[in-house]
Task: inverse folding
């Protein structure tokens, strides 16, 4: 361990590393072996000190013919890249695993035989790439370059989306006049004009659709005007259309007849020396052959488009920021700028014709919305950075006090667009933070991905890392459905700088996060595709690797096992808020995806039934031959249940299995007398 002066293990099994900055404690590891079918079988494991600066693990019950996983919170983690600069900006689930996109200047970036483009084309300084890994992160199934020759700064994949057929959509920026487009696409001509800083030419957006195996370019088009375009975010509708939001400096960015706003900056003339830009949102069919609709968003100054989400109604919500006058507001909204830059959120009807709702959100300084996601109870969750100490927060929220130079904010606005959010909270330490991505699960819990420079960023006990590895680290956090508690939070990184790229929510309750690292010791797992940094560049080096990491967002001592028997679409999952120890801090068992407004039991047993027993139509993973107990529980209208509990003193080291069982309802599962069940938790008391 670099920087450790002494390493030892405390009587309770906690590893202690003495450093110049003080003692760093790592709770006992949670460990399992992977048995047939991919199921996890818990294995006892403890730290073994090798000398004053190194340690290993001792697992006497491990079957050495099976894969052993020893890692608190990380299911698997892999690097991706070669000997130069490689960055992942987007990640999505794929029927065959996980797909990512980003940028590389590594001529030997890994590609695969039969992929669309396996040759790095010079002299372009950057190429977009698209890569597909299997579900375990151990195999590179397919990987391709995407781009053309460029006089500017090449091409960058910013967002990756996957439709129900497994086809892959990539949205990004390009300076290439010969970026690959397809016959019949909306635009095969590079629209970027001259004069943009710093390359003398303006970039355009591109939208490309590849087959599931990344071997064929089904459709590809430019999207933009004669000025600079920047992607904010992109998403797919239920019917497979692509919705793209971002920023344009081009007065001739394509808008469509009948859309809400056809004129850039409301048609106003440019004041001398004032930067002008508008946000935009565009919907394209899967064929990429036309625009279904496209509209500007803005007043007479500078706007930037950030996050975008398609709501269950088909309405489209877009977030961003404005520094201009005359920004259009609709509904119970803040009527004027509160600072030098305020966040905005707008909602358009499914045709892009009508502005249904528009409000400004902010305090006396500046803020911007980076992320928007639909909320299962209606409305949407917003997030981004703020410099305003008076940004509006709500009573009972996780953090109502501004902490540093820049904090992250997260808030939930309801469908009616009330003036104040349903809940709103800060997230941050005493330095700077920014938000990159968020997702909302079926209960309304919010997973967050961003970066921090704060050594006191809020983390939770038993997380992967409670201290940063360097000045700039990734953070991964989860807020409870009410924005009141931090269910999980950790730093993620190594001794160099690390930064986030994207987040994808897994149906199991895990998340997959991706980004880039300059750390030679970024955490990877045995058996992953790439576990050694190709070229760690250090804090100021121009070299990095992409990373893809699957995390369970559970504290040390808690792991998921078994299979759920869900009645509702999306699955039923057990989880835990807090740390599994006897302590005065809040501890609760939770379940998401239960039948709404139902009753059930949470069963707590002294032994797990790893293989599971099917009875009454559900798979049971608590061993009823050993002592067990149950607690009546109830689910709310979203199918969420939270059961506060405590752990008595004197149980350190004991193991419990936890599983929820539910009565199905007409709204989910149907059939009076039928049951559904969650997966199970293995809890080792710390």
Result:
């Amino acid at each position: 361990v670099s920087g450790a002066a002494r390493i030892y293990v405390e009587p309770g099994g906690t590893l202690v590393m003495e450093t110049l900055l003080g003692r760093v404690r790592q709770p006992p590891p949670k460990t399992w072996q992977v048995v047939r079918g991919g199921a996890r079988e818990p294995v006892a494991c403890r730290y073994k000190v090798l000398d004053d600066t190194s340690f290993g693990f001792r697992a006497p019950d491990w079957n050495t013919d099976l894969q052993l996983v020893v890692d608190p919170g990380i299911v698997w983690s892999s690097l991706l890249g070669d000997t130069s600069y490689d960055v992942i900006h987007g990640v999505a689930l794929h029927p065959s695993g996980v797909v990512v996109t980003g940028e590389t200047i590594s001529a030997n970036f890994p590609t695969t035989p039969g992929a669309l483009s396996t040759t790095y084309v010079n002299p372009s300084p950057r190429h977009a790439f698209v890569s597909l890994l299997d579900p375990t992160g151990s195999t590179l199934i397919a990987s391709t370059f995407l781009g053309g020759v460029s006089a500017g700064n090449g091409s960058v994949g910013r967002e990756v989306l996957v439709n129900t057929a497994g086809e892959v959509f990539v949205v990004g920026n390009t300076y290439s006049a010969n970026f690959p487009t397809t016959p019949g696409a909306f635009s095969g001509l590079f629209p970027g004009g001259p004069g943009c800083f710093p390359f003398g030419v303006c970039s355009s957006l591109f939208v490309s659709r590849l087959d599931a195996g990344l071997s064929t370019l089904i459709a590809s088009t430019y999207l933009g005007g004669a000025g600079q375009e920047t992607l904010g975010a992109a998403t797919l509708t239920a019917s497979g259309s692509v919705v793209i939001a971002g920023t344009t400096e081009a007065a001739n960015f394509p808008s469509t007849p009948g859309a809400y706003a056809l004129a850039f900056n409301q048609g106003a003339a440019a004041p001398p020396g004032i930067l002008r830009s508008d946000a935009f949102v565009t919907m394209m069919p899967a064929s990429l052959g036309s625009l279904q609709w496209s509209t500007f968003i803005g007043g007479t100054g500078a706007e930037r488009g950030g996050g975008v989400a398609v709501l269950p109604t088909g309405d489209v919500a877009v977030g961003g920021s404005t520094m201009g006058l005359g920004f259009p507001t609709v509904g119970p909204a803040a009527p004027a700028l509160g600072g030098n830059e305020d966040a905005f959120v707008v909602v358009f009807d499914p045709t892009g014709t009508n502005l249904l709702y528009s409000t400004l959100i902010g305090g006396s300084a500046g803020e911007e919305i980076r992320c928007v996601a639909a909320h299962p109870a209606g409305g949407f969750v917003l997030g981004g950075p703020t410099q305003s100490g008076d940004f509006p927060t709500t009573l009972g929220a996780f953090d109502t006090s501004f902490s540093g130079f820049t904090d992250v904010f997260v808030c939930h606005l309801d469908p009616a667009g009330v003036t104040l959010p349903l809940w709103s909270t800060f997230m941050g330490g005493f330095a700077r933070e920014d938000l990159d991505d968020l997702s909302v699960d079926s209960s309304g819990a919010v997973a967050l991905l961003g970066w921090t420079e704060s050594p006191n960023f809020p983390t939770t006990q038993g997380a992967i890392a409670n201290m940063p590895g360097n000045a700039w680290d990734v953070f991964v956090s989860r807020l409870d459905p009410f924005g009141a508690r931090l269910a999980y939070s950790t730093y993620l990184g190594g001794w160099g700088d690390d930064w986030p790229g994207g987040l994808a929510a897994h149906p199991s309750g895990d998340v997959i996060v991706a980004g880039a690292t300059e750390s030679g010791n970024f955490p990877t797992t045995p058996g992953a595709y790439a576990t050694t940094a190709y070229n760690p560049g250090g804090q100021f080096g121009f070299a990095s690797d992409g990373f893809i990491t699957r995390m369970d967002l559970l504290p040390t001592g808690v792991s998921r096992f078994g299979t759920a028997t869900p009645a509702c679409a999306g699955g039923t999952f057990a989880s835990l808020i807090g740390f599994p120890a006897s302590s005065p801090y809040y501890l609760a068992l939770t379940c998401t995806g239960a039948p709404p407004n139902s009753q059930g039991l949470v069963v707590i047993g002294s032994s797990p039934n790893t293989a599971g027993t099917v009875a009454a139509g559900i798979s049971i993973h608590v061993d009823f031959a050993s002592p067990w107990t149950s607690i009546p529980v109830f689910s709310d209208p979203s199918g969420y249940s939270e059961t506060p509990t405590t752990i008595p003193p004197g149980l350190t080291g004991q193991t419990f299995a936890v599983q929820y069982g539910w009565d199905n309802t007409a709204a989910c599962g149907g059939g009076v007398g039928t049951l559904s069940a969650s997966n199970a938790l293995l809890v080792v008391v710390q």
About this structure: The chain has a mean pLDDT of 86. The longest strand covers residues 675-684.
